[in-house]
Amino acid sequence: MNSKTVKFGGSSLADADQFRKVKAIIEADPARRYVVPSAPGKRYSGDTKITDMLYTCQQLAAAGADFSDVLGKIRDRYLEIAKALELSFDPTDELDRIAFRLKEGATKDFAASRGEYLNGLLLSNYLGFPFVDAADVVRFNENGTLLMSETMLAMREVLGKLENAVIPGFYGAGPSGEIITFSRGGSDITGSLVARAVRAEIYENWTDVSGVLVADPRIVPDAAVINTITYEELRELSYMGATVLHEDAIFPVRAAGIPINIRNTNEPSAPGTLIVADDSADSDVQTGYTITGIAGKKGFCAINIQKAMMNAELGFCRKVLAVLEEMGISFEHMPSGIDTMSIILAEEAIKGKEKTVLSKIRKAVSPDSCEIEHGISLLAVVGRGMRRTRGTAARIFAALAHARINVKMIDQGSSELNIIIGLLEGDFEEAVRRIYDMFVKSTIGEDAD
Ligand code: ASP
Fold first, then answer.
1. How far is the CA of 170 from the centre of ligand 1 (A)?
2. 174-191 burial by CB neighbour count: b if 16+ within 10 A, else e?
3. Whose CA is nearest to atom 5 of ligand 1?
4. Cα–ligand 1 centroid distance for 39 (angstroms)
5. 184 CB under 6 A from ligand 1?
6. How far apart are CA 259 and CA 244, in angstroms?
7. Which residues, 6 or more positions from 169, have their beta carbon under 8 angstroms from its beta carbon?
8. Residue 226 DSSP symbol
9. What is the whole-number distance in angstroms between the Cα of residue 186 and the centre of ligand 1?
10. What are residue 206's phi and psi, to 5 degrees?
11. What's residue 385's pLDDT?
12. ∠ CA(220), CA(208), CA(146), 5° rounding?
C-alpha cells in the first residue's frame, strides 16, 4: 500500500488548535500513515520552545540549581494541549522521571529529546496511532554519527508491521542505549529517514510557510513560492542562508528518489514546494522563471594579494592556500587576475587570526601588497534554467548596474547552476530586491533556447 511520511514542525504543534489542524491533514489522506512530530514550538513571537526550556532545565540541573519552575511550565504546556483536546494524557509521571535523571546528571541530548518524546506520546494518543520510540529505531555510533543501514533495518523491522505510527523526531540512541540528538531542527532528518525506510511515495514536511520562497521575505515581503526545486538547487540556496529544511534531511530521501513536499499546516490547500531529484520533465518551465531562487549572507571578508608577475610564479596559489590550511581556515571563493588574487572567506573563520595569516602569507610569497577588506556579502542566484537560457548574467548585472551597485566579485560554477556575486554589505538587500524584480516581475531580456 502506498504511504506518505508526514513530519510536522514545532509551530505546527504549538497548541491545541494546531494539533487539530494536524489531525485534519492526516485524516484527509489515508496514505499519510507515518507521522514524525517535533516538540511544541513557539505559539507567538517571544514565546519559548519546549526544546529550549528543556536545555535550560539541564543547564540548571548541571549547576546544581532548582529547575522545577521551568519543568512545571513544560508540564503545563502539554497538559493544556491535552485538556483542550479532551485527552487523558498526563505527562506528570514522565516528567518526574526526567527530573530524576536530570538530577543524576543526564546529558543535554537526553534533556532536549524529551520534548519530541512527550509530544510523540501525546500525538499518538490523539491520533490513535501506535507510538514507536525513536530510541529503538534511530541508531548512532559512539561518536554520534548516524548509522544508516542499522537505522533502516530497525525501522523496517518495526514499521513494516504497523499500519501507521507516530515516531518522534530529533533523536535516536547510541550503542549502549544513550540518547543522542541530531543538531537543531533535526526532526526533518528523522522524517527523511522514516520516508526512506518505508519507501514512501513522498515525504511531506509540514511547517508554517507555504514552501520555499524565491527570496527572503524579510527583504522581499511578497516573495513568490517556488513550485519545483531540485535537491541540488536547494542545497545551493540552503548553503547561502535560505532556511527551510535541515541540510542533512536531503540525503536519505534523495538517495532513494523520494520527493519532498514542503507544505503549510496553516494553509493545507496550498501545493507548497516540491523538491525533486532530476531536472527532467521540463520542471524549470513549472517554476515560470529562469531563476529558481536568490539567497545570500553577510559577514565575509577578502584577503587581497597583489604581486607583479604573479602569473609566472609557479605554486603561488598553493603557497597562499597552504597558509590557510595550516591555520585551519576554509575559504569560499578565490577570484584572480593576472597579478592579483583574492580569497573570500567568512569573517568568523579568520577572527583573531588576521595578523598571523597576513604575516604568514607575506613570508610565504613576498607579495607587493596583501591586505584584508571587510564588510563583504555574497549573493547567490540559483537556477537550473540558467543552463539553457542566454542572457541570465546580463540581466543580473543590468539590474545591479541600474541600482548603481558595485560588484566586487563574480563566480559562476561549471554546473551553471548558480552565479555568486560579492557585494558590499550595505548593498545586499537592494541587490536582492533588484534581481528579484528583474526575474520575477519582468521578462525583459529573456532568451530561452
Ligand atoms: N525540537 C528540536 C529543535 O527545536 C528539533 C526540531 O524541531 O526539529 O531544534
1. 6
2. beeeebbbbeebbbbbbb
3. 185
4. 6
5. yes
6. 15
7. 7, 36, 37, 38, 116, 134, 186, 187, 188, 189, 190, 191
8. P
9. 6
10. -95, 130
11. 85
12. 110
Distance CA 154, CA 356 (A): 50
447 beta partners: 390
pLDDT digits (tens, 9 = 90+) for 405-423: 999 999 987 778 899 999 9
The DSSP symbol for 446 reads -
Q: Which domains does the chain carry?
A: 4-208 (3.40.1160.10), 293-448 (3.30.2130.10)
Q: Which of 355, 357, 364, 359 is nearest to 343 (CA)?
A: 357
Q: How far apart are CA 362 and CA 364, in angstroms?
A: 6
Task: Annotate 65-110 with three-state secondary structure.
Answer: CCCHHHHHHHHHHHHHHHHHCCCCCCCHHHHHHHHHHHHCCCCHHH
The pTM of this model reads: 0.86
Strands 179-181 and 171-173, sheet pairing: antiparallel
Query: What is the C-alpha end-to-end distance of the chain, expressed in Å?
Result: 42
* Cell numbers given for 346: 567568512
Query: What is the pLDDT at residue 288?
Result: 65
Closest by CA to 296, choosing from 402, 235, 216, is 216
Pocket test for ligand 1, best of 35, 49, 109 (most atoms within 8 A of CB): 49
Max avg pLDDT among 66-80, 240-254, 288-302, 336-350: 66-80
Q: Select from 134, 119, 49, 133 the least CA-distant residue to 79.
A: 119
Q: CA 305, 306, 308: angle at the middle one, nearest 5? A: 150
| Per-residue confidence band for 13, with pLDDT thresholds at 50, 70 and 90 | very high
Contact predicate 187/152, CB 8 Å: no
Distance 137 CA to ligand 1 centre (A): 18
Pairing of strands 293-306, 273-276: unpaired
CB of 54 closer than 8 Å to CB of 101:
no
**DSSP state at residue 440:** I
User: Within a 10 A sphere around the Cβ of 123, how many other Cβ atoms?
Assistant: 24
